[in-house]
Amino acid sequence: MAQGLIEVERKFIPQPGTEERLQELGGILEHRVTFQDSYYDTPELNLMRADHWLRQRQSSGWELKCPGAGGISGPHTEYLELTAEPAIVAQLCEVLGAGVLGAGGVADVLGPLRLQEVASFVTKRSAWKLVLSRANEEEPLLRVDLDTADFGYAVGEVEAMVHEEAEVPAALEKINKLSSMLGVPAQEKAPAKLIVYLQRFQPQYYQRLLEGHSSREKPQGTEDADSTLG
Please, which residues have CB within 8 angstroms of residue 72's CB and are 6 or more apart in sequence? Predict the structure, then answer.
């Protein structure tokens, strides 16, 4: 697989006062932004069922999230993020069992790979960054995104980006520490916006996503969507 950054992330349900708490902890508000995400998959959801997530973000281009090593259990996710289109196309062909489709971009292979839009929604985001301890220059930068989708679902993300698998445990420790400082329950697992969108508006896709997966194999968030929204 082509090289990319490893995203270590934990989702949570924001509470009143989350932004104020971030300010108290030294967080810096980078920006507030609104964007549209469109997700693509085959009619059978062959990508999502393999824990691969293909997204086109307005003004940002294409991204494919691929499962990381995931050697540490817990209420977090670990994904390799591919943003270079040749790498995305190569990985799509590998996952979907297709031959080499030439040198075109992602848009050129949607048809041959039977990829179609399965979800699209607009998100309002406030993006924060902070370092928990400034005594160590190697301390990983943490980012906190507070999102509200146009269908009414709000979710937060604490994330760190690392280059090597060996860096994941330290990043995860900082993520869990910050999550605790924000008042996030230790085992809370908030579903992703896409999962909630499918559950609410594309139930046939949501059920298809659950089919064939044991609870241990389900993509992150699917096993908790009902309890979180109930």
Answer: 78, 168, 169, 172
| Averaged pLDDT score across all residues of the chain | 88
User: What are the residues whose beta carbons fall under 8 Å from the beta carbon of 59, sequence distance 6 or more?
Assistant: 35
Q: Of 186, 208, 220, nearest to 68 (Cα)?
A: 220
Q: Using one digit for the tens of pLDDT, what is the confidence trace for 64-107?
A: 999 987 667 778 899 999 999 999 999 999 999 988 777 789 99
The beta strand positions in 131-222, using DSSP E, are 142-149, 154-162
Residue 179, classified by CB atoms within 10 Å of its CB into exposed (0-12), middle (13-18) or buried (19+), is buried
Is-above-0.70 flag for pTM?
Answer: yes
160 vs 171: CA distance, rounded Å: 6
Residue ranges with strand state E in the chain: 5-12, 28-41, 53-57, 61-67, 77-82, 116-130, 142-149, 154-162
DSSP letter (8 states) at residue 222: G
3-state secondary structure of 114: coil
What tokens does 29 get? 């508000």
**Phi, then psi, of 6 in degrees rounded to 5:** -100, 120
Distance CA 162, CA 9 (A): 11
- Kindly report which listed range (11-20, 27-36, 66-75) carries the lowest average pLDDT score: 66-75
